[in-house]
């Protein structure tokens, strides 16, 4: 039996960590030249876990190596340079170290008095990112979240509280008419979950049509709101998307802001994916208007390239944020005069020190390092577009972000069949999507490991699959 498995002696800990670091480095090196999607058999995975009956303890390195093996052969590898998937890039090394540091100290960000350093680090990062969006650090409030869905939920709750102060106590029945949330038909469908969670019901979500290019159509949105108001409904929230899931399109932010103010509604920008583009002048112009938002969602675990999960919620009314989550709990340590307790200003209570991942990456890379990261993705997207065109594929979206939606210009390859074939081959990974009502192929070159040689592999695989379907 291993001695003191809970906390081995210092020398043993150092030895285990050194060996584990070497094994992890070997695993990352190996997976980059292996299949992107090993496609494990579910029964084989379950059989591998049968040896873990937990009746007798295992050695640290043996158990850790078993987990490494399971993940290496049972995961779609986001750390692979030929992964062109769902906006989740390969992560930065400083952010990996940050997770290790956070795990060692294990600060709990429920009350500030228990983790003042962690709370200040996160406050500092929130202010810095708010500055990136055009806000003054002293007017920027918010916090880290588990992801974009939680951040968007927070925005909806704040909007409902702002629109009707009695909502906090009485819920949806406090409104004189049906509260309405307005988003694009291309927005993330988490809004339906959010409407359910906030108690206003899924029918409260109004999805406005797009303009034929994947962006919300502001003229149609205005007509929908006018019709709803004529029925006695209450426009509460307009959510613009800065980087749609299907095609990376950015809604007309300035127009959405103007409509929100005309109807007294909250203006939110879901920039979970596209917000990181603010670091580059090549993208920032497309995000003009985000500085006028009442609240913003960003996901650091997307284009900011840190490990899951690290969403961010930013707003400019800290008092309203506190009123939205107002609660008194006599079993919690008392607040200090130096700052607010995180649990009183968010959906969460006890939570991990998530913000350190972005803080350490920013500290080590700076904004210039992130600008290079984003612009490398943009260059690769342009290289992909050029190679696709040379090989008879047609790009159908015009996104300022690093996402390319395309179809077979020769009409021989079906998107779903092509994806299944290419992914099964294992050399690269892409996805299918629906853009403006049609099935398309989608590729996102956002990994810092990716080079033009991996673009060539992707197009070669696409061509191979098309030829196979033609036969």
Describe the structure.
The protein is globular, with a radius of gyration of 24 Å. A seven-stranded mixed sheet has the order 1-7-6-5-4-2-3, with helices on both faces. A four-stranded antiparallel sheet has the order 8-9-11-10. It is built from 15 helices and eleven strands. With 471 residues, it is α/β, with parallel strands linked by helices. It folds into two domains: 10-77; 99-361, Aspartate Aminotransferase, domain 2 (3-Layer(aba) Sandwich), CATH 3.40.640.10. Helix 4 runs antiparallel to helix 13 (356-390) and helix 6 (148-163) crosses helix 12 (318-324).
Key attributes of the depicted protein:
single chain; 471 residues; alpha/beta; Aspartate Aminotransferase, domain 2; 2 domains; seven-stranded mixed beta sheet; four-stranded antiparallel beta sheet; globular
β-sheet strand percentage: 5-15%
By DSSP, the count of extended strands is 11
* CATH class group of the largest domain: Alpha Beta
Helical content, roughly?
A: 40-55%
The major sheet is characterized as:
7 strands, mixed
Name the CATH superfamily classification of the largest domain. Type I PLP-dependent aspartate aminotransferase-like (Major domain)
Could you tell me the radius of gyration in angstroms?
A: 24 Å
Number of domains as seen in the coordinates: 2
Instruction: List the strand order in the largest sheet.
Output: 1-7-6-5-4-2-3
Secondary-structure element pattern, one letter each: HHHHHEHHEHEHEHEHEEHHEEHEEH
Assigned CATH architecture of the largest domain = 3-Layer(aba) Sandwich
CATH topology of the largest domain: Aspartate Aminotransferase, domain 2
Content-based structural category: alpha/beta
Distance between the termini: 61 Å
3D shape: globular
Low-pLDDT segments: none
The overall pLDDT average reads: 93
Number of contiguous helices:
15
